[in-house]
User: What shape does this take?
Amino acid sequence: DNNILNFILTCFMIFAINWGCNVATYVLPTECFPVEVRSSFYGLSAACGKVGAFLGGYFFKMIADAYGYSAIYAICGILSIGGIGIAAGYITPYWEASLCGEAKEADTYRRSIPRKEAKEEPMYSAA
Assistant: This one.
């Protein structure tokens, strides 16, 4: 039946679209930024994605009316190839990265911070 095929293809399309965005927004920043700035840059990455989505939605009709949908496809292709170039140039491949080493450095940093010693007090007092 044609409806079943359309449903299956739609499911695959939604999976592919969401997988790419979620990986780029949520997984990639946690893997490529140093521990000290990871949460700040994680938010910056998410914000850049939102700004890009806003600009794409804002300019879509203007570009489509002026130049047609071929220009939209060309712009999307150019931006995608540019993104690949930026990612290849600035992101350390996972086989070269050492997230465990970063975790050890962060743990050493946390241990170097002076802390007040806690008093040993019973959890419950008999009253």
Observations:
- The mean pLDDT is 76.
- The first helix runs from residue 2 to 32.
